[in-house]
């Protein structure tokens, strides 16, 4: 299980990368669940990371845009993709209707590497998940829009998350979990074994809108690695 850490500026990006984050995710938490940074900010952070941490995988959100404004979403995807990130994240309501499915198909035709983020506050509709898995996306994520009422697992039952993980594996997609996850959620993450887990709240000096703390990233990274190592140690007789 790899670790994604969301950052809002260059200093946080370097802190997260130096502490061992595998994915550096660019967003502005004060602007919503998937609040976006200005393209100029994204370009500057990408340039900084490429100089100092070339192996880091960089993603960036496009911002919280309404699903029925596909033209605005596709324009912003293009603007963010041109900033040099590896992955462009786009939020889609997990109970989205035909418009959300149509958006997923249009995103699937994009020239950029898109990661749809299915906002699972009310679960994920089967047809929406099937549509997402049918597109040539390199990965999908489950996340939440609400960040103050608990983690992903307070919104979605573990068995339902497990089913999404299972279907993603069948489809050959990477699957990431996020949504106000904290160290207390590690046992559930260990049981589910997603390809990566995303954190912001757990690595800040207070709320997710606070400042990212490198030592918290390092400690959480260490806990993830311990979980991995413990899972691979054979049980003794």
Task: Describe the protein in words.
It is a single chain. Helices cover 41% and strands 17% of the residues. The protein has 237 residues and is of the alpha/beta class. The protein has a single domain, classed as TIM Barrel (Alpha-Beta Barrel), CATH 3.20.20. The protein has an 8-stranded parallel barrel, surrounded by 7 helices. β4, α4 (98-108) and β5 (114-119) form a beta-alpha-beta unit. Mean pLDDT is 94; it is low at 231-237.
Could you give me the name of the CATH homologous superfamily? Aldolase class I
The biggest beta sheet reads: 8 strands, parallel, barrel
Residue runs with pLDDT of under 50 for 5 or more positions = 231-237
Give the H and E element order: EHEHEHEHEHEHHEHEH
Distance between the termini: 27 Å
β-strand percent reads: 15-25%
Shape: globular
Count all strands and give the number.
8
What is the second-level CATH architecture?
Alpha-Beta Barrel
Our Rg estimate from Cα atoms comes to: 17 Å
Structural class: alpha/beta
Q: How many domains?
A: 1
Query: Class, according to the CATH hierarchy?
Result: Alpha Beta
Question: Which bin fits the share of residues in helices?
Answer: 40-55%
Q: The CATH topology, please?
A: TIM Barrel
What is the count of DSSP helices, taking H or I runs of 4+ residues? 9
Q: Let me know the average pLDDT.
A: 94
């Amino acid at each position: 299980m790899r670790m994604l850490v969301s950052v809002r500026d260059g200093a946080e990006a370097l802190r997260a990368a130096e502490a061992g984050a595998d994915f550096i995710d660019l967003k502005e938490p004060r602007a919503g669940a998937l609040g976006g940074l200005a393209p100029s900010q994204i370009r500057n952070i990408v340039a900084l990371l490429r100089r100092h941490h070339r192996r880091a995988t960089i993603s960036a959100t496009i911002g919280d845009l309404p699903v029925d404004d596909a033209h605005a979403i596709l324009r912003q995807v293009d603007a963010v993709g041109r900033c040099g990130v590896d992955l462009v994240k786009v939020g889609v309501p997990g109970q989205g209707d035909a418009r959300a499915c149509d958006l997923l198909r249009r995103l699937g035709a994009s020239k950029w590497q898109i990661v749809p983020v299915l906002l699972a506050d009310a679960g994920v509709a089967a047809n929406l998940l099937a549509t997402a898995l049918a597109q040539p996306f390199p990965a999908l994520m489950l996340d939440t829009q609400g960040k103050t009422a608990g983690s992903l697992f307070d919104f979605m039952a573990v068995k339902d998350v497990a089913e999404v993980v299972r279907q993603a594996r069948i489809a050959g997609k990477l699957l990431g979990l996020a949504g106000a996850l904290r160290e207390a959620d590690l046992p559930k993450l260990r049981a589910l074994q997603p390809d990566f887990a995303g954190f912001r709240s757990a690595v800040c000096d207070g709320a997710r809108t606070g400042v990212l703390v490198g030592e918290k990233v390092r400690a959480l990274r260490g806990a993830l690695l311990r979980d991995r190592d413990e899972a691979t140690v054979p049980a003794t007789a």
